[in-house]
Amino acid sequence: MPPHKIGTKAQIVQFTNCRILRGHELIWEDLWIREGQILDPEKLFFEEKKSADKKKDCEGHILAPGFIDVQINGGFGVDFSLTNEDISAGVALVAKNLLAYGVTSFCPTLVTSPPDIYHKVLPQITVRNGSARGAGVLGAHVEGPFISHEKRGAHPDSHLRTFEADAFQELLKTYGSLDNIAIITLAPELKRSHEVIKELTSRGICVSVGHSVSHLQEAEEAVRNGARFITHLFNAMLPFHHRDPGIVGLLTSDQIAPEQQVFFGMIADGIHTHPAALRIAHRAHPKGCSVETALEAATLHPAQLLRIEKQKGTLDFGSDADFIVLDDSLNVKATYIAGDLVWKDETFSH
Ligand code: ZN
């Protein structure tokens, strides 16, 4: 991401009377920002001998990093994969509407499409910072077309592809360019997928496994080659079986090095997945689900997935000042991007 413009917003703002999410905890502490970034107040006092130009009372609310959504296929009447729409306008409309939900950056997601659609749509999904006009775009998430015929779900069968000889070149030709792509969901059981996973990972593209009939061993091999995300866990994959738990088994696999963390997304709406399935996924990890853990699942973890946690997903000193104000029931009261108020609930004072 390009850095925020220096010099335009040198004002120091101190957010007071708030609990901020920092170091995996909610702590009573003020948040200081300048030029779109979070400041270390000690350095400000002792090195620069400066104090706040402006204070904002947060009424005892929670301040958390802005939410990062790594899979959104559309919304608010827009479907990013539909060819007859102006995709730039569609992305802009969704970006604007996401501000009220506390989302400060996202990955517009495309389902399986023919190459000419990728060539037309992907250049329009440019990576950009957020602003009052809308949440920032971190790059596209492309689901398919290298996915399983049996687990294609709503993806059109006629556009699915397999990897033939020269698999990576074929993938490049299909998408046209990797420039605006952040995440690719593919089925790791496809022949030659592992060489593709290695190549994509070396180029900084996040590989996700999904829409797949992969057995656990193939999924583990994919992770060893660099895959680090599971697209909508439980949906569009083999159901958990005790002799071969499939992709779901990645949650508790002992065949992956501990430093190779595997993240997953879930459609936690109680329809696509039963609440008990959500609890199984949650309990596969040691922590009980606190507010802090839930907030980090929507902020820190997607930032780590995309390897942007030095800029986003935390309120650490030096991070982008993309943050949200939440009440105790986690309703979004206000959304800030690069230190600017970009949305607020009408009852909130800021
Ligand atoms: Zn899907």
Distance between the termini: 28 Å
- CATH topology description of the largest domain: TIM Barrel
- Measured as a percent range, the helix fraction is 10-25%
Structural category is alpha/beta
Spatial shape: globular
Identify the CATH class of the largest domain: Alpha Beta
How many structural domains are formed by the residues? 2
Uncertain segments are 1-8
Instruction: Let me know the average pLDDT.
Output: 94
For this structure, what is the CATH homologous superfamily of the largest domain?
Answer: Metal-dependent hydrolases
Largest sheet: 8 strands, parallel
CATH level-two architecture of the largest domain: Alpha-Beta Barrel
Tell me the fraction of residues in β-strands, as a range. 15-25%
Count of distinct strands? 20
Helix count equals 9
Q: Tell me the Rg in angstroms.
A: 21 Å
